[in-house]
Automatic annotation (TrEMBL):
Coiled coil: none annotated. Residues 22-96 form the Carboxymuconolactone decarboxylase-like domain. It comes from Streptomyces virginiae (Streptomyces cinnamonensis). It holds the Pfam family CMD. The lineage of its organism: Bacteria, Bacillati, Actinomycetota, Actinomycetes, Kitasatosporales. This is Alkyl hydroperoxide reductase AhpD.
Length: 157
């Protein structure tokens, strides 16, 4: 399967993606725990059906020491006992922020309050940016049918 578009070869996309990648790097360097970032990126990508990002975040998380059990259970995090309360709050916010079209009220106050119990303002900002960033990246890859499977850990960092 070939991608419909090569974003890195297109001059317009190349200019835009340079800034997008810089924003992604800033989020990665934030005080939001790295494990939380990978779990959230993976869950958003699962919801959106972005095979490329699922491949990337699974491999990057594994390379960073994440366990296979936790990675396999991200899709069913509510029933899994392997996540901290803070990670659960982040995953809940990620789902609510990704499925805004499915919920009349968007991200509910209870979801936000639960996340705010575990993360400070800087971390909440990073988490919100990460959720939005991943939704954009997922859409770019899904629209272009970016193939998955060949990603090497750290390839886009």
């Amino acid at each position: 399967m070939d991608a419909r578009l090569d974003y890195f070869a297109d001059p317009t996309a190349g200019k835009a993606l340079k800034h997008v990648m810089a924003a992604g790097k800033m989020i990665k360097e934030s005080s939001l725990p790295a494990a939380t970032q990978e779990l959230v990126a993976l869950r958003v990508s699962q919801i959106n059906g972005c095979a490329f990002c699922i491949d990337m975040h699974t491999k990057d998380a594994t390379a960073a020491g994440e366990t296979p059990v936790r990675l396999h259970l991200v899709a069913a995090w509510r029933e899994a006992a392997v996540f901290t309360e803070a990670e659960r709050a982040a995953l809940e916010l990620a789902e609510a922020g990704t499925r805004v079209a499915d919920a009349a009220g968007g991200v509910g106050d209870a979801v936000w309050a639960d996340a705010a119990k575990h993360y400070d303002a800087e971390q909440l900002t990073a988490l919100t940016l990460l959720i939005s960033f991943m939704n954009m990246a997922n859409r770019l890859n899904v629209i272009a049918r970016q193939p998955a499977g060949d990603y090497q850990p750290g390839q886009l960092h």
